[in-house]
Recover the amino acids of this structure.
């Protein structure tokens, strides 16, 4: 009923506007204003509006800077981030200047050179001098920006990671993160997606996790086989189960091939954490990223750091934190401030809530914390991370049925 | 819908005139109206998700009204539907409005009329181009109604998210329809593009040398070449994705464990898709932008009563932009783990584009200088286009810098940048084009007062929507977030989101002023004269009532460039291209 009323009233509104238009047009015809071109008064008015807009636009810009300028990211908490911020500020200085100058000319000319039937426009087709000027001046500024920018880029991405760097792997899935420290041997143990299980979310390969996974797969295969024995012959159920058993057997084969790996002990001392990871101030943190399902992106805005996590490949990013969480709480005047890791590549329904806290502490404190953590060989308990997003379950069910 | 014309050409039936028309003028109107209808859908979608973003988690009956109990239970938007809305909004605006709608309308209308041709090289291919476009639009709209929802992986539809139905509901049937629709769209765009290229090369009238072509034709011509060279690559990307989705291949898949099981397909890489996608995706930006720049050149010159400044430099910069647009795609992929050295190369090539772009902006501004400016609604939209081109363009310098992109990639800063430089510029120019060539399309005038009202509300709301988003980006807010309230660091920015939403919804409502003016004027606008703006180009030498073949007698002969406005020694402030040069008179476009 409401819908009909709404549609009806919209229809009536359009009709009445149409009638008004006709009256309006008839009256302007009576006034003898039938030229398709704007009248002198209209031209004058619009040209003045150009100037008004120019000031309004700049005022809006200034107001936004005043109101939100201090609500942007605080000072960078990483070493390279400070250099990036300087580069960014330099860029902003230049583009703001260009923006202001060009807009002043654009709208001022529009205001000043309003139509006047007694004045003929200036027939000015081109000027090689002017055009050369505004080809070379931008080129020079861009050259500065390119050289400076690429210098930073090379520093950030191509510098060799020092040997004493803390190695951390970030492994996202829909919709949470797990971090893995390399442990006392500073080497991440081998891992493979075939090894993933409830107690081994990263698929780390150690001799213990291998036998556990082999046992798990065998158990599941046995379950399927038992089910298959009960299933009616020739039915869909039978087909499905036969396929599953074949698939599980192939996975088992893959998993068993890992037994010949020589690095089986490297993963034992790895440390897996969820919901929060801790890093020491002043040391290089060498991140390695993989992904379990779809593309995610590890975004740590306070450190000016970001890298995509792509299934099937390992990506890397290294930075050196310079400000501890406690110090940043002081700088921002916010006792509850925490550094965060966000997902910044669309990855599904709860993409907006895929977070992990990052705590930056002094090195001694970091060492103490590390010693308190259970190593992978002692087992890993999934605390579920921090994702509390609600997903439309009904939809998910439909999905699985398909 | 396009039934404005009451004149009858005797040999034509209703079907051959309005439906399966092979006349470029009618096809142009068909593209325009289809594009407009698609744009309305895309715009309503943006208003719906802006409701959620402005007032996160609050209930709105209108969400429930449009989306039903499944996708907006109790008027609260479902996160999956949010992603679907963003995805389809992007797809519609980029492809259906600003590629099909913009190029389809103006290439069809202007190419034959401005080069002095009877019609396109192949009227039949041209008709096919429209019908493929319509079929693709219909399928895209149909995909909105499937049970698991339309494609939701973002308009770039990166696999594995888009490849695996287990990953999200929108990657089911909705995604299949998206791919089918896009494939048809690509066919449409290739049929159209080839036709435009051939027509411009072969069918120019006597005297219409390449250096006498209006800039609108140069822009549309180069755009068509870009499309012909880059859309097939998107087609291959889509094809491989269809294979991965439906036939068990692994072009884009490897090492995946999803929905509790391993995926047995390995050896592919999603990065391959990204390369293929952006090899189209970046030229696509210029496929959208170049026609906009071309239209702006025409409207600004005509209404400043002044030659476009630096005609040859304008052509040069169109060609430079087009060439460079093919070697910059990697700037969308700085953070994919691509070799950092490649990143450095793409930074360099990307920043090079700023130079021809700057030349264009400065030349537009200089065209205004000492002009005699008539503020028609088309002129206002063109001036605003120059403003958005600059405002959005300068932030591109920051994003092109791989080092700075680390922290700004995929944040609202990017959203602000491309919406202003590509979205707004192209939309503003499209409006300029419609207001300017409406008399040519429909033989009537649009209402000027409504045009002014439409312009000011649109222009102000446009900046109101996108300018503040730079600040969200600088605060580190990622795009495509259903809600920011899960992160306390974004709590201070709630009022920006509210402001943006208010402007967005007000701006969307303002577009109905235009819709009303458009459809009202088709039927009831005052009759137009043959050359209402005092323009030089050939389309204004055709009769007001459309006829097949455009000119009743022989084709016009061109004697001069298109920009002899206010030429010294001439009585009128314009000299049409068909007027022969006087003894000793220099042609403005040639020489120097």
């Amino acid at each position: 009923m409401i819908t009909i009323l709404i549609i009806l009233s919209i229809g009536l509104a359009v009709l009445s506007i149409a009638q008004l238009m006709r009256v309006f047009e008839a009256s302007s015809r009576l006034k003898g204003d039938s030229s398709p071109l704007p009248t002198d008064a209209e031209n004058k008015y619009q040209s003045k509006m150009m100037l008004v807009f120019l000031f309004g636009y700049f005022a809006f810009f200034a107001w936004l800077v005043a109101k939100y300028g201090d609500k942007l990211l605080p000072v960078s908490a990483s070493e390279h981030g400070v250099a990036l911020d300087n580069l960014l500020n330099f860029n902003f200085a230049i583009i703001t200047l260009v923006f202001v100058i060009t807009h002043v000319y654009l709208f001022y000319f529009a205001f000043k050179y309003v139509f006047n039937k007694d004045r003929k426009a200036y027939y000015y087709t081109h000027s090689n001098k002017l055009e050369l000027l505004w080809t070379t001046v931008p080129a020079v500024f861009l050259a500065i920006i390119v050289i400076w920018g690429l210098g930073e880029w090379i520093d950030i991405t191509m510098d060799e990671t020092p040997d004493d760097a803390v190695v951390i792997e970030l492994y996202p899935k829909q919709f949470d993160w797990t971090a893995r420290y390399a442990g006392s041997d500073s080497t991440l143990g081998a891992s493979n997606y075939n090894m993933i299980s409830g107690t081994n979310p990263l698929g780390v390969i150690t001799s213990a996790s291998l036998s556990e996974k082999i046992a798990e797969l065998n158990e599941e295969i046995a379950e399927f086989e038992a089910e298959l024995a009960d299933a009616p012959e020739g039915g869909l159920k039978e087909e499905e189960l036969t396929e599953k058993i074949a698939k599980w057997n192939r996975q088992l084969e893959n998993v068993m091939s890992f037994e010949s790996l020589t690095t089986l002990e490297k993963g034992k001392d790895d440390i897996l954490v969820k919901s929060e990871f801790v890093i020491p101030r002043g040391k290089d943190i060498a991140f390695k990223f993989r992904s379990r399902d779809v593309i995610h992106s590890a975004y740590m805005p306070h450190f000016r750091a970001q890298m995509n996590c792509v299934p099937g490949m390992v990506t890397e990013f290294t930075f050196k934190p310079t400000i501890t969480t406690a110090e940043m709480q002081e700088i921002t005047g916010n006792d509850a401030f925490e550094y965060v890791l966000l997902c910044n590549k669309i990855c599904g329904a709860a993409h907006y809530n895929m977070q992990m806290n990052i705590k930056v502490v002094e090195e001694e404190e970091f060492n103490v914390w590390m010693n308190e953590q259970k190593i992978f060989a002692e087992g890993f308990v999934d605390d579920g991370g921090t994702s509390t997003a609600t997903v439309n379950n009904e939809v998910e069910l439909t999905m699985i049925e398909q | 819908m396009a039934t404005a014309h009451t004149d009858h050409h005797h040999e034509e039936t209703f079907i051959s005139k309005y439906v399966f028309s092979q006349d470029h003028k009618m096809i142009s109107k068909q593209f325009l109206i289809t594009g407009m209808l698609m744009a309305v859908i895309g715009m309503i979608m943006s208003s719906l998700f802006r409701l959620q973003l402005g007032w996160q988690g609050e209930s709105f009956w209108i969400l429930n009204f449009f989306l039903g109990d499944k996708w907006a239970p109790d008027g609260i938007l479902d996160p999956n539907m949010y992603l679907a809305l963003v995805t389809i909004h992007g797809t519609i605006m980029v492809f259906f409005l600003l590629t099909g709608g913009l190029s389809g309308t103006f290439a069809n209308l202007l190419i034959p009329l401005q080069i002095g041709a009877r019609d396109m090289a192949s009227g039949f291919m041209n008709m096919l181009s429209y019908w493929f476009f319509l079929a693709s639009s219909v399928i895209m709209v149909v995909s909105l109604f499937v049970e698991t929802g339309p494609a939701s992986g973002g308009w770039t539809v990166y696999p594995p998210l888009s490849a695996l139905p287990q990953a999200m509901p929108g990657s089911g049937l909705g995604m299949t329809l998206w791919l089918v629709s896009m494939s048809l769209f690509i066919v449409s765009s290739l049929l159209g593009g080839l036709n435009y290229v051939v027509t411009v090369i072969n069918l120019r009238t006597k005297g219409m040398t390449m250096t006498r072509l209006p800039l609108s034709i140069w822009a549309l011509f180069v755009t068509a070449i870009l499309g012909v060279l880059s859309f097939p690559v998107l087609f291959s990307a889509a094809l491989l994705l269809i294979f991965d989705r439906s036939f068990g291949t692994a072009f884009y898949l490897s090492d995946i464990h999803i929905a509790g099981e391993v995926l047995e397909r390995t050896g592919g890489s999603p990065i391959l898709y990204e390369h293929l996608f952006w090899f189209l995706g970046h030229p696509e930006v210029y496929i959208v932008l170049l026609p906009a720049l071309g239209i702006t050149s025409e409207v600004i010159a005509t209404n400043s009563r002044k030659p476009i400044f630096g005609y040859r430099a304008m052509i040069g910069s169109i060609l430079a932009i087009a060439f460079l647009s093919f070697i910059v795609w990697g700037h969308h992929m700085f953070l994919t783990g691509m070799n950092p050295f490649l990143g450095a190369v793409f930074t360099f090539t990307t920043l090079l584009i700023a130079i021809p772009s700057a030349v264009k902006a400065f030349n537009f501004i200089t065209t205004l200088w000492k002009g005699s400016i008539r503020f028609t609604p088309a002129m206002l939209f063109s001036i605003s286009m120059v403003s958005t081109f600059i405002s959005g363009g300068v932030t591109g310098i920051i994003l092109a810098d791989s080092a700075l992109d680390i922290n700004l990639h995929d944040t609202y800063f990017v959203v602000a940048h491309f919406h202003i430089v590509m979205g707004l510029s192209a939309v503003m120019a499209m409006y300029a084009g419609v207001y300017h060539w409406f008399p040519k399309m429909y033989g009537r005038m649009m209402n000027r007062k409504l045009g002014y009202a439409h312009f000011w509300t649109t222009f102000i709301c446009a900046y109101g929507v996108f300018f503040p988003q730079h600040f969200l980006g600088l605060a580190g807010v990622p795009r495509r977030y259903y809600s920011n309230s899960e992160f306390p660091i974004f709590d201070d920015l709630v009022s920006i989101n509210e402001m943006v939403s208010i402007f967005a919804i007000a701006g969307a409502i303002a577009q109905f002023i235009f819709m009303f003016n458009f459809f009202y004027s088709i039927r009831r606008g005052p009759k137009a004269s043959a050359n209402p703006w005092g323009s030089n180009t050939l389309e204004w030498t055709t009769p007001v009532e459309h006829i097949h073949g455009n000119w009743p007698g022989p084709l016009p002969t061109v004697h001069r460039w298109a920009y002899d406005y206010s030429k010294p020694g001439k009585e009128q402030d314009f000299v049409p291209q068909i007027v022969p040069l006087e003894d000793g008179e220099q042609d403005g476009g040639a020489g120097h």
About this structure: Strands of chain A lie at 166-173, 176-181, 271-273, 276-280, 285-289, 296-300, 305-309, 315-319, 339-343, 356-361. Chain A has three domains: 37-123, 161-192+270-387, 206-260.
